[in-house]
Every structure is written in C-alpha cells, then in structure tokens.
Amino acid sequence: MSSSVAPPPSAPVPASPISTYAPTPEPVIGQAPDGPPRGRPGWQRLAASWWPTLLVAAVLCALTFVAGAGLTNGGLNLGPMTGVELGLTLGCGLTAAAALALAPPESRLYGRWPAMLLVAFAALSALSVLWSVQPDASWQDASRLFAYGAVMGLAVLLARVAPGRWSAVLGGVVLASAIVCGYALLTKVFPNDLGGEQITYYARLREPYGYWNATGLAAALGAIGCVWLGARRSGHALVSALAFPALGVMLVTLLLAYSRGALAVLVLGLALWFCMVPLRLRGALVLLTAAFGAGVVVAWDFATPALTTNTATLAQRILAGHQLGVLLAAMVVALTVAGLGVGFVLDSRRLVAPARRRVGAALIGLPVLAVLALVVALAASQRGLYGTVSSDLGSLTNPNATVPSNGPNRLTALASARAAYWKEALEIFADHPAVGVGAAGYETARLRYRSKPVNVAQAHGFVVQTLADLGIVGLALVLVLLGAWLVAAGRSTHPFNRRWRRWRWRALEGPATHYSPERVGLLTMICVVVTFGIHSLVDWTWYSPGLACAALLCAGWVAGRGPLTPEPEPEPAGAGAGAGERGGQPATAGGRPSVAGGRLWLGVRLPSAAPIDPLRGAAAIAIVVAALLAAWAEWQPQRSAEASNEALALAGSDPAGALSAAMKAVSRDPLSAEALITLAAVQQGTGDATMARATYQRAVRLQPSNPLTWEALGEYDLRSDRPAAALRALRAAVYLNPQAVDPRAEIASNEELLTLQDDYLQALRASAAAAPRPGASVGHRADRRGHG
Question: Smallest Cα–Cα separation from 675: which of 82, 144, 135?
C-alpha cells in the first residue's frame, strides 16, 4: 500500500505542473490506477484511458441528436424515439447479460433494487393499457421506461464489473454536455446554417432538443461536472484546465436559453456539491473564474437586440451571431489560459490554514451579500418587500397568470403556465385517485378539464403527471424507488461522513471518512442525479433520452458501486489477475473485481476459460430474451405507423394494396385508434360502407375517452347523410373536449345540418360547461352520453 499513502506534511514533495494539481497524492480508497500497467505501447495506454469516456459521450450525444431529429420536441417523435428505444434495449440488454455472466462469482450485486423498481414502474405503465384513456400512448410510454430501466440496470452491473471506470461515466457526461452546449451556441453564431428551425423563438437557445429548458438542463448537468473536473486533485492538469472554458460555455448556454428552472436547479446542485465535497476553495475558484468570463459574453448578448428579440431580420441576426462567435472564441481562449495559470499556481503554492479560513469566509459572504442586496432592492421597490414577494408568489401559483415574454427579462419573472397544467393534473387525479387515467393519458384526459384551447402533452412536472397517469399506486412505487436509491447511494458514498445504522444517522470513523478521488466523483454523480430529479419536478425533460440516460447512468453507477474498500496490494510481476483478494472479492492490481484469469485489452478484462456460474448464466440468458421481446414490442407502433402511411399513399391508386396495408397497421398495433381510423377510411374508399362504420365504432369502443374517435365517427355519419347519429357522436366529442374548435368544418356544404349547427352547438357547449366533472371513467361517461 506504499504507493497509495501520502508522505507526512513535513516531507518535501516536488510539484508536478504537468501531471497533477496536487503536490501530494491523496490515499485512494477503492480507486483504480489511471491507466494500464507501464510498459505497454503508448497508443494502448491512451486508448485504455480515453476510449470509455469517449464511448459514453458518443452514446449520450447520439441519443440527443437522434431523438431530437427534426429539431422539434426531441424525445417525442415516434420514429426517432423508436430507434433510440431499440438501440438502448438491445445494446444495454446484451451488454448487461455479458456483464452479469462475467461478474466475479463471489461479488454481491448492489443496487439491484432501484433498477428492479424502475422496471416495475415500466411494467405498471404497460399494465395501465387496461384502463388507459389512450392505451397506445400508454404502451409507447412503457416502452420508453423499459429502455430507461435497461440503462440503469446496465450501469448497476458495470459498476461491479469495472468500478475503476467511474471517471469515464462522469467524464462522458461532461463531454457530452460540452458538445451539446457548443452546438446550441453555434446555432446562434450561424443562424442561417444551423438555426433555421428557430423561427418563432430564435432568441432562445433550443437546439438540439427543440426545447430550451432541456438545453438549459444539459448545461446545468455539465456545469456541476465541470466544477468537479477543474477542482479535483488527481488527473491530468491540461484536462482539468479545460474545465474552465467548458464551464464558461455551459453557463453562457444556460443563460441564453432563458431557462429559469435550469438556473434554479444549477444553484441547488452546486450548493449540494459544495456542502458534500471538501474541494470548496478549488471549486469556487473554477466557478467564479468561468462565471466572470461567461458574464462578459452574456452581458453583451443581452444588450444586443438582434440576438434577444424576435423582430430582427435575418441579416441582423447573422451579423450579430458572427460577433457573438468571436466573443465566444475569445472567452474560450482566455479561460483556457486562466485554467492553466490556476493549475500552475495551485501546484506551486498551498494555502495555510488561517488563509484558507479567511478565503472561505469571504466566499460564504458573497451569497449572503447577494441575498441582502436583493432584499434591500425589493424593499425599495414600489410595492415594498412584502407586496413584491406576495405578488410574485401569487403569479407563480396563478393558473391564469400572464406568461412572460421570451427575452432576457424572463429570467427575473416567476409567472408561468405550469400552474394551469398542474391544476388540470390534480383535477384528473382527484377523479381517478387509485390508478389514474393510464400512462401518458394526461394529454387526452386534460381536454375535458382545460379552460383554454392550448394543446399540451405533459403536465410539466413528474409528480403531478404521475398522479394523473398512475394515481396513488404509481406515486407510491416512485417513492419506494427513490428510497431504495438513496439507501444504495448512501452505502457507497456516505455523504457528510455519516450513515444510517440501527435507525440512527451516525458519524463515520476511521479510514472510511477519507475522500478519495473515486468517492468525490461518486458524490458529484449524486449531485448530477439530484439536479436532474429536482428539474423533473417542474418540467418534462424526463422525456429527453439524452438527459434522462445521463442521470440514469450516474444513478445506476452510484447505486451499484457498493461500499468502497481499501485498495489491494499491487500484484507482483507475472502474478495472475486473481492473486490478490480483499473482502472476498478477487481483484486486479488496480482494485477492479474481475474473473480469475483472463487478460486486459484496452483496460477491460476479457473472460478466461473458467466456467461461468450457472445461475448467473441463466439470468444472463433471461436478460437477452427479455431484451429481444421488449425490442419487438417497442418496434410495433412504428411498424403500424409505417403501414398506415403506406395505406394512405396507396388509397388512390391501389385500393386492394391500401386495404392490406391498413389491416397490417391494425394487427401490428391493435391499441392504436389512428390505425383503425385509417382502416375505416380505406374501407370507405373501397365502397364498403358497412365495414367502415363498424371500424369507426370499433375505434370508439377502443378509446371512448378520446374525442378524436368520436369526431371521426361523427364526420363519417355526416358524409353518409346520417345527421342524427352524427350529432350524437359530435355531442360526445364536444363533451370530452369543450374548448376545441368546431370539429365539423366539413358540414358547411350540407344546408340541413348547417341550419342545425349554430343553435345546437351553443346549447351543447353551455350544457357541457355546466356539467359535473367526469367521475369514475371519462370514457364511460362519454359512452353513455353520445354513442348511438
């Protein structure tokens, strides 16, 4: 253990400005060496050190850019999201099966309960198709959750197979965030080439997710990792110096996205990091330096109307964007030089205890002074302190509050449309408290409760959406999942040097209190997960796979790591990989659990000829089978949509082929009302009126709470000259969606129905507005009132 024990403070240690910031290496607990053993070729050492980080970053970037195809509503488009789900399910399933089979036979698999509970939550979502108001949406939501469960399960297993690769996970998240933020800024620097989709709200950064709050959250998650990267005492100094410009880019991205939620969770996440990680002075130095550089760029941007208003011409935007690019490049260069200078100073000098206390007191005084200045400014305002605070809080909870404009002043406003979405979700929950209206059913169920004709797919809050979709049962399962993860995360990191034991939060003693590089990294992962979790309470970024998978990787790794153990003694030259053993776990010279025998290739231990444990082998086979079945189920909605599109394309030229394709669409996704409506339209085109109306009625029976099915039936009856039946169907559609625009635009040519339309709809809307909220089942109420 001599190689991991630091010399006494009195011993002189030469500084090494090239390899590390720390003049004295800290003792390491459970930390693998930086690379493979010496003597290997240089390219292999480089690959072994960097390829896992690059792989994690590449996967996260692929999830972000593929799911955001079209640059609108990233994570919600069926086609791109199906590809993401298939890749995650199959890739994670096969890798997890291999990791489980090759895991050390005597090692304990920590973190399995959080992963299993996430899969159970996905199973509950799939089961909700039995009572869902829109079962096809529930199935698609369950598919996404199964893919997320595969990601978390894989992270849990890899944390046991290769615990020394924790830095690759955290570094990959930081690198992916830097790439995403860099691309987002480039859309503003080159608006004509990369920002073409930002037509209405181009002043706010929204790419590559198509949603500004997701872009802001990506910057917030990466910013926390950058503070760790720049403040750490281990690792290459050049890499740590690059954390300064990367953090500057992320702060600029967050502020130019005008994302209040992302800014708030970044403050909370950083506060948690500074409370748990004993690198406060270093972290503060990184944060303040990057914030100063980013502040200069943001101040110039906010003062440039061509970049902050929606009335600027394209030529003005291009000119201002190029100027912004020059300023960003200067910021990156300046912060890189500052990072190298800070690293050199920290290597050559160490603050004595009194100086550290004075600097720490000054840093603590900065936020205190900022809060006091804010209080004084509010007290001096026209409405005073109490009046301003009460007014802002009122606008925050008022469902009818005026939404602020999409400009820099948005960062200081509290009003939001979320209060209306949350109110609707809670009303849905009040009428369906046990199991809700089905996974992803909020979008359809809210049409009966909304007070304005605004289309919203999510409740902009994970808790309220879970209550509306899955009721008390779903929320209880989520709370159990959260508790299981907190227990598993506390087991491996012991935040604040304490742990729960015999129902008491007791202080740790001995070597377990040491903050090794790995423990600091795991604590940083916890901050990333908490930041994402808090943001999910106030937004729907849970649906963005690039962000969700970054948080799930960190969450699964922390939960699966298990207790950190002292680093084993290095193996003698020529010794086998399993020569050393500590705590019943075979280990390599780097402390990585491994299968006895085998060999290293690019830092990964390949399996030996030793037999695989039969129980784990069977479990691995079961994982592969489950992944294949889940992937097949995830693929069916997309295959159904493709068949429906094919049927519509063939309807005019090949009626028989169109009918065959429409029937395939229904068989591939029997839960889809859209597939049934397409089939009915094709049947109507072939002249089979009886079958067409029966298919429309079948769609109504499948989704009686969906106003679209009633509208389709009513419009068919209108075209078939059945005015009484049409009015009954449209009556149900208006009841389920009172705020909709008149669904009968096609009846203007029918004089008989045209004379009935105005009087009937006015009376109908009045009765629908005065009707009580739907009770046990929205769909059943609609069925009783309208289906004839």
Answer: 135
